[in-house]
Structure to design on (340 residues):
């Protein structure tokens, strides 16, 4: 029997790196579904994806795709969101959008369910899923911010291929194979050789500030999610040859002094966070361990000796970019819509 709360859900970008994780999250979390509609470009129409062991056919995304849809999970890039989210909202769906298209719009809630679930109720048809590096950096910090305001954040990211989509993941594998075979490989998706290399994030740089688009997203989105426009943030985003989990080195300065023990206790209590901090074994958060995991792993928690006043803590986190950084966070938002 269908749950009375069962919903018709559409996935826009179902064939993409995040799209297939939407399918997996909806399945594993037993999201009550009346119907699941898979949408992608005309190239994928007719392709079959498996859901709960059954084949589901992908349809071409059009303005008419959303009739009867309750929740539309979008992850097909900003242009597609801008073009098709209005049609979905008009058809009566609530859009949970993984792109950056609407994140900074005043009437669009930007939500990490562990941080600001109350913002969901203010939606006017669209709820935005934050940038993956923002989610992974700030989810562990929220319990600290609530009791001892974080006034300054310094972040360095080590970002996986998945953030640039399935084609970038393929490029990492193919270029690594070519490198090991001693063959030339011309990058097709990312701007620089990826195998055994790293480079400044591929988002465009603002020539006036020297910050790239990814860095600006984390700065602005953190302020919006925390509801604190005055946090001072600096960040350097780097793409590393890792498949699907980002790592972030974070140093945060609080208004009042904070000890390592206090920070550890608060972060350990953060929902969706697991402490991995074994100094004896030199075992700390790694993208390989974070891959496929819902939790954000946090370790290297220590007093930042660069601040002798004792207001600053340094740490290292790793989180699955496709899960908590994208699909899982969006499905958690959809779950909150069910409860509303
Ligand atoms: P398709 O596989 O048919 O190209 P990723 O982030 O991994 O690159 O995935 C992007 C997702 O967005 C894919 O599912 C892709 O579908 C989808 N997509 C890209 N362009 C369009 C489009 N014009 N209309 C609908 N879906 C699109």
């Amino acid at each position: 029997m269908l749950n009375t709360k069962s919903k018709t859900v559409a996935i826009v970008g179902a064939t993409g790196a995040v799209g297939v994780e939407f399918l997996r999250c909806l399945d594993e979390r037993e999201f009550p579904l009346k119907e699941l509609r898979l949408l992608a470009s005309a190239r994928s129409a007719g392709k079959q994806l498996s859901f709960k062991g059954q084949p589901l056919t992908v349809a071409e995304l059009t303005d008419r795709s959303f009739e009867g849809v309750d929740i539309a999970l979008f992850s097909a890039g900003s242009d597609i969101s801008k073009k098709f989210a209005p049609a979905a909202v008009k058809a009566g769906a609530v859009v949970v959008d993984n792109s950056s298209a609407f994140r900074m719009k005043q009437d669009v809630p930007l939500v990490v369910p562990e941080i600001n679930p109350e913002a969901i109720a203010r939606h006017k048809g669209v709820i935005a899923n934050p940038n993956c590096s923002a989610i992974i950096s700030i989810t562990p910090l929220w319990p600290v911010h609530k009791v001892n305001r974080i006034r300054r954040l310094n972040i360095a990211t080590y970002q996986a291929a998945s953030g640039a989509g399935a084609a970038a993941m393929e490029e990492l594998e193919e270029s690594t194979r070519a490198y090991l075979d001693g063959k030339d490989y011309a990058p097709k998706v990312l701007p620089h050789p990826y195998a055994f290399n790293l480079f400044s994030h591929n988002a465009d740089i603002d020539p006036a500030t020297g910050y790239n688009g990814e860095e600006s997203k984390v700065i602005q989105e953190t302020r919006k999610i925390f509801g604190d426009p005055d946090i001072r943030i600096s960040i350097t985003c780097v793409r590393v040859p890792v498949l699907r989990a980002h790592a972030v080195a974070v140093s945060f300065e609080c208004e009042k002094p904070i000890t390592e023990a206090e920070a550890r206790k608060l972060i350990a209590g953060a929902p969706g966070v697991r402490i991995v901090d074994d100094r004896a074994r030199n075992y700390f958060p790694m993208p390989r361990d974070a891959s496929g995991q819902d939790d954000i792993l946090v370790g290297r928690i220590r007093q930042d000796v660069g601040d002798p006043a004792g207001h600053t803590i340094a740490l290292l986190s790793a989180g699955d970019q496709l899960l908590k950084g994208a699909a899982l966070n969006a499905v958690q938002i959809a779950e909150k819509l069910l409860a509303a």
